[in-house]
Every structure is written in C-alpha cells, then in structure tokens.
Amino acid sequence: MKVAVLDITGKDTGRKVELSNEVFGVEPNNHAIYLDVKQYLANQRQGTHKSKERAEIAGSTRKIKKQKGTGTARAGSIKSGVFRGGGRMFGPKPRNYSFKLNKNLKRLARKSALSIQANDKNIFVIEDFNFESPKTKNFVNVLKALELDSKKSLFILGESSANVYLSSRNLKGSKVVDASGLNTYSVLNANKVVISESSLEGIESNLSK
Q1: 198 CB-near residues (< 8 Å, 6+ apart)
Q2: What mean pLDDT do residues 180-199 have?
Q3: Between β-strands 2-6 and 174-178, what pairing exists: parallel, antiparallel or unpaired?
Q4: Contact between residue 56 and residue 77 where contact means Cβ atoms under 8 Å apart
Q5: The Cα angle at residue 185 between residues 133 and 4, in degrees rounded to 5
Q6: Domains in the chain, please, with CATH?
Q7: Are the C-beta atoms of residues 125 and 156 closer than 8 Å to each other?
Q8: CB-CB contact of 114 with 23 (8 Å)
C-alpha cells in the first residue's frame, strides 16, 4: 500500500512511501485486540482503593446488648458492618490489576489495529518535524493544516521530541508517542493516525518479528 508523504503544512511533497502488508495489511484479530486493550486499561488502574473493615474502625468493644431475650439478632460489637458507622464487609482492598500477555499476541493486536486504520484510510505519513521551543500554538497550527483540529489524532514520531510532546500535552484530542510507545488502544482510539517518515522503519521492524 502506497501513501503520499505530506509536510506539516498539509501539502503533498510529491513522494510516496510503501506501507508493509505484514504490518498494515493483515487480517485483524479481534480477540487479540480485545486482550491487548484490556491489558492497557488494566495497567492504568492504580488499585489503591481501600475501605475500613471491622477491625480498623475506632469504637467501643463492649457487647451492646445481652445475648438472649431481646427478640432480635445477637450483636457483639458496634463496629459490626450491620450497624451504621461500622466497618465495611468484604470491601475493596489494594490490588494490582496488571496481567501478562504473550509478545506475539501483542504484536498481532497492534498490527491488527494499524491494519484497521489503514483499511479505513485513516493513516497519514508526514515528514519529520520538530519545534524550536514547546508552544501549543505550533502544534495547533499543524493540526489545522492537516484538518485534524476537530478530530482525535495520534502522532507517532521516530524519536521522542520533548518540544513536540510538550506542545501537544494540553490538547485533549491529540496524543504524541514515539514508535516504541505504540499501543493498540491509542491507535484505535484515534480518528486519524499520523506517522512520521522516520518512525515507519521502527514500527515495521518491531512488529514484523
């Protein structure tokens, strides 16, 4: 699949690049995509949720009423979860939500995501670019030139650029990653995927293994 190379003003440079069919033209595997997205979202969870249990509540330890003869259920502590202000029964505890996936499955998921976007003609290739200083206005101008200012976009750079990343950080609908930070969720969550020329080789070499 051949794609025209654009510059940051949105103009065609007259050059074209070949997108590898091994990465951008595979049959999408929906289950691999599901597992990789599930892992990505699970890894975002902090897992610091915690509620106090009966033993952690401050309160009296005396028996609040006699064992028999009241006509109601027996009760030994005001800290019991059945009383207001008591500990929570079976409440959440800190835990790690992350889980492991096979490397080959993750590669398949990312190739599937890129192939879906390529098939829908949602992939742009642009010349490598950088900014002299981090300014949001500079990145907004690039988005406008590419007609992406009203769409969710993912920019994949060959090498991490602090100025480009910082210029995009305040923009809710845009995300900038380098080729090594590519993930299935970000690819599918974007309306358009913008790939820099220098990142193509890295993407294809990483996912063609």
Answers
A1: 128, 157, 158, 159
A2: 92
A3: unpaired
A4: no
A5: 60
A6: 2-46+97-207 (3.40.1370.10), 51-91 (no CATH)
A7: no
A8: yes
Helix (H) or strand (E) holding 31: helix 30-44
The count of other CB atoms within 10 Å of the CB of residue 114 is 29
Tens digit of each residue's pLDDT (9 = 90 or more) over 129-174? 989 899 999 999 999 999 998 899 999 998 878 899 999 999 998 9
Q: 153-157 and 192-196 as β-strands: parallel, antiparallel, unpaired?
A: parallel
CA distance 33 to 55: 43
Radius of gyration in angstroms for the set of CA atoms belonging to the chain, rounded to a whole number: 26
- Residues making up the chain, counted from first to last: 209
DSSP 127-155: -----SS--HHHHHHHHHHTT-TTS-EEE
Residue the block writes with tokens 């610091």: 48
Q: What percent of the chain has pLDDT over 90?
A: 72
Q: How is the beta sheet containing 192-196 ordered, strand by strand?
A: 12-18, 2-6, 123-126, 192-196, 153-157, 174-178
Q: Any idea which residue has 């907004």 for tokens?
A: 140
Q: Which of 17, 46, 207 is nearest to 113 (CA)?
A: 207
